[in-house]
């Protein structure tokens, strides 16, 4: 390494270790320890443990990899300091992870933070793993009893292959369709499992529902809690073909990683079943504990899981009320819809009336993908823009008829002044005939609806007005404003993010907020909460979203206000920002819809759907 390169590395390491000490109090040192600090490699950079472990275990036994939520650095914990020193000497300032462009900057740390449970053999309370529950012969018999080809309930989902027996388990709401029993009952080959569990005292009766999922390497399932009213308090999951790590998460922030060995039976009851979400992270490798200690990386094989449930005949009466859909269901539903209506009225409809002129000034250039969609329709087609705003997508295709609607009177008036055919209405009740439009667009609208039922109703209204084979394009804000390691245009408008182009060391760090700014934000939040019946987090503009339901500030410039004052007024718009695949799942709940395309576009999740 040249003298210049060495000086550059020293500067980089000094900057990173100073940041580490400032944020966590952890000190780095010159003498080797068993703790190796890794800069430029963390959860916010998109790297997982599995990407790093193979490159460090070749120098010695690795006992742990500590990843910090929301940080662009991590720690490797070696069994001894000598192995740590060898890794340091060989990997300092190297680009070692394939397809990852950043070099890694290393330093010896005196300690590491404790951030999550590392006991791979203990899950949350109420979870039990029975290893070697079936033998190899039984495993083969069970795998061959699956009728993938002829069963009516077989499905190819985006991330796995699924088949149901007894009743269909519906993934869009994590519930069981009890009204339509399936003709295919649980295969007889499974009875040996139930007899064994009865003898061991874990169950007293046989389940009546089975879902079989087949996962290829790289596939997984999002974290979820099976709806309480769907099934009873015990769920069984048999892992065949391959081992896997299952991730458990609690609403209080706790998380656990539980090893499910091949041919093991997982039993979830009580708290594990009712209060913890469980899921499998989509990846091709898992970090596994070695029998003699330390960690190793194991490639995933084709895993087939048998999940058995007992359908519930009445409402759930558990004590985990925060997660329970049965608890005070009727009152909660009425309050939820009334609260959503009030929230939208105050923090969507009223806000857009107040900021309409300024909002319109910021909306000029059509987005290319929306423009392509609008221009794709032949002469004479009818296009409806649901939530047309200032009408920036009108007039882009001279050969079609265009109709727009918006809940804001002031925005609708701006469109009318420009000669467009627009009316004012709520997107939950479009005053249009069934089957009257060839195409619809809904750009940045549905994320303003304050509960899932209302978002689904908006999709249903769009589908209702479409003719058969009609198409709709829907855009909503994404919770993740980085995709394929690229920041969205929303994040790039933040000065700190633009600066990160020149300083890649902090490319994935959130902008620094000093104590005074943080205090100001807290006071603003408290004051806001007292002035209304809502308690939602205030989002910091041009930063990554930390919550799914947020209030986003809009600062109205003095020259845009009717009253010319020096003070900048701030309004708060409600947003539900969408997780990956959430918009797809929402649209596919409408049975006569076909998903044509799903994509990510500059911080938005987008779908094109067709009416069957």
TrEMBL record:
GO terms for biological process: tRNA methylation; tRNA wobble uridine modification. It holds the Pfam family Methyltransf_11. It comes from the Eukaryota. Residues 34-111 form the RRM domain. GO terms for molecular function: S-adenosylmethionine-dependent methyltransferase activity; tRNA (5-carboxymethyluridine(34)-5-O)-methyltransferase activity; tRNA binding. Keywords: Iron, Methyltransferase, Multifunctional enzyme, RNA-binding, Transferase, Zinc. Residues 206-312 form the Fe2OG dioxygenase domain. SUPFAM superfamilies: Clavaminate synthase-like (SSF51197), RNA-binding domain, RBD (SSF54928), S-adenosyl-L-methionine-dependent methyltransferases (SSF53335). The keyword RNA-binding applies. Signal peptide: none annotated. Its EC number is 2.1.1.229. One of its GO terms (cellular component) is nucleus. It catalyses: 5-(carboxymethyl)uridine(34) in tRNA + S-adenosyl-L-methionine = 5-(2-methoxy-2-oxoethyl)uridine(34) in tRNA + S-adenosyl-L-homocysteine. Belongs to the alkB family. This is tRNA (carboxymethyluridine(34)-5-O)-methyltransferase. It comes from Gryllus longicercus.
């Amino acid at each position: 390494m040249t003298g210049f390169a060495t000086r550059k590395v020293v500067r980089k390491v000094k900057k990173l270790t100073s940041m580490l000490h400032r944020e966590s109090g952890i000190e780095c040192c010159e003498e080797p320890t068993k703790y190796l600090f890794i800069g430029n490699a963390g959860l916010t950079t998109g790297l997982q443990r599995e990407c790093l472990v193979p490159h460090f275990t070749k120098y010695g036994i690795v006992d742990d990899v500590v990843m910090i939520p929301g940080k662009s650095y991590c720690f490797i914990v070696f069994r001894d300091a000598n192995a740590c020193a060898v890794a340091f000497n060989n990997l300092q300032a190297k680009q070692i992870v394939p397809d990852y462009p950043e070099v890694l900057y290393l330093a010896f740390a005196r300690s590491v933070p404790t951030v999550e449970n590392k006991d791979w053999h203990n899950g949350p309370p109420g979870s039990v793993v029975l290893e070697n529950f079936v033998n190899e012969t039984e495993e083969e018999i069970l795998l061959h009893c699956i009728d993938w080809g002829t069963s009516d309930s077989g499905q190819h989902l985006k991330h796995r292959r699924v088949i149901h027996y007894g009743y269909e388990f519906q993934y869009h709401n994590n519930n069981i369709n009890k009204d339509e029993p399936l003709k295919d009952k649980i295969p007889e080959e499974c009875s040996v499992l139930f007899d064994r569990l009865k003898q061991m005292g874990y169950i007293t009766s046989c389940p009546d529902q089975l879902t079989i999922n087949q996962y290829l390497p790289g596939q997984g399932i999002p974290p979820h809690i099976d709806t309480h009213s769907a099934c009873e308090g015990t769920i069984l999951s048999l892992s065949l073909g391959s081992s896997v790590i299952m991730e458990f998460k609690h609403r209080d922030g706790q998380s656990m990683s539980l090893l499910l060995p091949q041919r093991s039976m997982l039993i979830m009851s009580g708290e594990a079943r009712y209060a913890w979400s469980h899921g499998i992270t989509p990846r091709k490798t898992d970090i596994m504990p070695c029998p003699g200690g330390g960690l190793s990386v194991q490639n995933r094989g084709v895993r087939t899981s048998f999940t058995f449930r007992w359908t519930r005949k009445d409402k759930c009466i558990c004590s985990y009320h925060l997660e329970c859909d049965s608890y005070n269901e009727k009152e909660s539903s009425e309050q939820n819809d009334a609260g959503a209506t009030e929230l939208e009225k105050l923090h969507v409809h009223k806000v857009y009336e107040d900021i309409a002129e300024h909002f319109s000034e910021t909306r000029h250039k059509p987005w290319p993908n929306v423009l392509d969609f609008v221009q794709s329709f032949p002469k004479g087609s009818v296009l409806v823009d649901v939530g047309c705003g200032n009408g920036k997508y009108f007039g882009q295709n001279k050969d079609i008829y265009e109709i727009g609607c918006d809940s804001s009177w002031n925005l609708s008036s701006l469109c009318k002044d420009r000669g467009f055919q627009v009316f004012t209405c709520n997107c939950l009740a479009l005053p249009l005939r069934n089957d009257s439009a060839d195409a619809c667009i809904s750009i940045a609208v549905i994320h303003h609806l304050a509960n899932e039922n209302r978002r689904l109703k908006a999709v249903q209204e769009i589908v209702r007005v479409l003719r058969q084979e009609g198409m709709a394009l829907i855009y909503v804000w994404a919770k993740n404003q980085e995709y394929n390691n690229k920041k969205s245009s929303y994040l790039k408008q933040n000065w700190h993010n633009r600066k990160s182009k020149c300083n890649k060391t902090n490319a994935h760090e959130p902008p620094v907020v000093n104590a005074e700014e943080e205090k100001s934000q807290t006071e603003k939040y408290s004051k806001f909460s007292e002035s209304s019946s809502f308690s939602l987090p205030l989002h910091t503009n041009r930063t990554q979203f930390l919550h799914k339901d947020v209030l986003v500030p809009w600062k109205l410039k003095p020259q845009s206000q009717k009253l010319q004052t020096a003070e900048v007024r701030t309004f708060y718009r409600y947003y539900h920002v969408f997780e990956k695949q959430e918009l797809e799942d929402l649209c596919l709940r409408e049975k006569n819809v076909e998903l044509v395309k799903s994509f990510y576009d500059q911080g938005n999740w987008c779908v094109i759907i067709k009416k069957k």
